[in-house]
Amino acid sequence: MASILLQSVVAIIMWMAVIMQGARALVNHPMTRRSNTPLTRVYSAIAKDELEAQIKAKGDEIRALKEDGADKATVAPMVQELLALKEQLNPNEPKQQKQPKQKQQEEESDFITARAVDYSKWYNDLIRVTGLAETSPVRGCMVIKPWGMSLWDRVREDLDARIKEHGAENAYFPLLIPKSFLSKEAEHVDGFAKECAVVTHHRLTAGKDGLVADPDAELEDPLIIRPTSETMIWYMFRKWINSHRDLPLKINQWANVMRWELRTRPFLRTSEFLWQEGHTAHATSESALEDAKAMINNYAKMCEELLAMPVVRGVKSPSERFAGAEETFTIEALMQNGWALQSGTSHFLGQSFGKAFDVTFQDENGTQQDVWGTSWGASTRLLGALIMMHSDDAGLVLPPRVAPVQVVIVPIPPKKNDEKGKHAMEKALDKLVTDLKDAGLRIKVDDRDYVRNGAKYFEWERKGVPLRIEVGPRDVAKNSCIFKYRAGPDAESKQPVELFAAADTAVAGLEDMQTSLYDAAKQRLDEGITEGATYDEMKAALVNDEASGYPGAGLFLVPWKCDDENEDKIKEECKATIRCYPLDVNEAKVFEGKTCFYSGEPANRMALFGRAF
Q: N or C, which end of the chain has less CB nearby within 10 Å?
């Protein structure tokens, strides 16, 4: 028995030796060593030439985005995709250590690129260093920070008052819209189809690789995150409108919308943005058309009176109209780089949405009639326009009427043991604050004792606060203070002002600054529109006129024969679009007797061409 047991143990030891020898041979085998590469570096099955084509296409896409001034958050995910493709092409090439770049260092600093160096970079730098907004983890979406949101609050307060004066009431409608609603108005859905974000399931479930859409929770009618709310609101109008006595019906909502964007710029073009959208229903076409025209004038007055931003009132060409509209009215502003920015639109919808959603009313004679409609809106694009309209290489310049803080007071404290000086300072400061508030001014006292005065001056100047008031012990002893304006006729130097007159002087000075900013912008607009140019002259000026350039070629007012095909050719040849048919010159029929600058045919419009954000 012992002999059998011994033989078994010897046999087991020999088998173990064989197994170990085979394992060592397997480990040292060249094929095994090659397969020891990490899983993420396994060479793709895609053919090398196909992979190289993908790398080239992705590189071209990234370059195009950068040339268009796309922000870092938009480009970064695509750069990662490009690196992943390159890694597949050369899986055995060791990864290089990422070296710090000057550009990255600048983006993390408080450096502002000069407009003349790169206008697009200047714009992005301003938004970053002044704390208006920053990128979010969601591609194409931004976080509006408190300083930026306070600007939007000022715009919203002003515009909301104008909308209510216009006769509209505020309401709120769902964020999600059934896909079937969008399908009811064919031209409307075609205009927004490529920009829609779609919700297809109503819950998640745990899957092998984490959370996944529950296949048992698929929606019968997918939901669209609203790109605009015409379809939802007209569905409700059908329930609310029965008689001519219910008309006109004017509804406004302040909301966020989603329009999927590949190339984004903060405030100017993001996938999600804030806006107001007004929707009205009328008994006659005349009433609806009058409403659309009146609202575009409200937008223009808001821009001019609040933002010190002159605009061109006009009508869009047929190819540039809002999807589903019979006429689109617009206001166009001219930025410092010579590009236009659409700043508000108002649409005469005809009866298209009324018929699509079967919205009818009984007229005075008892006959059922289809209603006429309008819609109009303005968005956070206005903040982008505001930034580019007045700001300079030192930072933001905010017109006093829209500035969240109109006056910042920087007290210079007395010496530590000067109790008498401290008491006098507190008394003078309290009186100054009370006088400024009683005069209706929005003020802030920056009494941070851990920040030097020079740093405070620098910070508030960059943020665009219109007026800084400095008060120190020597000023109090002389019953005076020091004024320093951010812009305008008195901005070049500091001015001593008596404390008792500070409030009245500030009110007058800020009004002068508001007027000065508007006048300067109006002069740029007038001088930035070229009249009488040939097509070749315009093409030469605009074909290489990029957003990064400064001051740029501006806009061109020319006689035009309305033609969608020729409009597309011009867009392809020199990247210019018809910003609008300006109302004033077209109502005056300035085009009569002129020939189209492109086709040579008799002109039937005066058109404003240019590059645009």
A: N
**Size of the chain in residues:** 613
- Contacts (Cβ under 8 Å, ≥6 apart) of 40: 87
User: Under a CB-based contact definition with an 8 Å cutoff, are residues 482 and 496 in contact?
Assistant: yes
Cβ-based neighbour number of residue 115 at 10 Å: 22
- 3-state class of 194 per DSSP? helix
H or E element at residue 129: helix 119-129
Q: What whole-number distance in Å separates Cα of residue 264 and Cα of residue 141?
A: 8
pLDDT tens string 321-335:
998 899 999 999 999
Per-chain mean pLDDT for the chain: 89
Give me the sheet containing 443-445, strands edge to edge: 443-445, 407-411, 467-471, 480-485, 495-498
Q: State how beta strands 272-282 and 372-379 pair.
A: antiparallel
Radius of gyration of the chain from Cα atoms? 32
User: Residue 463's CB: how many other CB atoms inside 10 A?
Assistant: 20
206-240 in b/e burial notation, b at 16+ Cβ within 10 A?
eeeeeeeeeeeeeeeeebbbbbbbbbbbbbbbeee
Beta carbons of 147 and 132 less than 8 angstroms apart: yes
Cis peptide before 551 (omega within 30 of 0): yes
Residue located via tokens 């490009």: 82
pLDDT in tens, 237-278: 999 999 999 999 999 999 999 999 888 899 999 999 999 999
What is the percent of the chain where pLDDT is above 70? 86
* Phi, psi for residue 496 in degrees, rounded to 5: -75, 135
Q: What percent of the chain has pLDDT over 90?
A: 77
How many C-beta neighbours within 10 Å does residue 174 have? 11
Residue 100: CB atoms within 10 A of its CB come to: 8
User: Ramachandran region of residue 557, left (φ > 0), alpha (ψ -120 to 50) or beta?
Assistant: beta
Q: What are phi and psi of 186, to 5 degrees?
A: -60, -50
- Between CA 401 and CA 381 the distance in angstroms is 18
Q: Which helix (H) or strand (E) holds 411?
A: strand 407-411
Residue 32 CA to chain centroid, in angstroms? 54
Q: pTM surpassing 0.70?
A: yes
Nearest alpha-carbon partner for 297 in 326, 327, 273, 330: 330
**Concatenated DSSP letters of 250-281:** EEEEEEEEE---SS-BTTTB-SEEEEEEEEEE
Residue type, 531: E
User: Is 154:588 a contact under the CB 8 Å cutoff?
Assistant: no
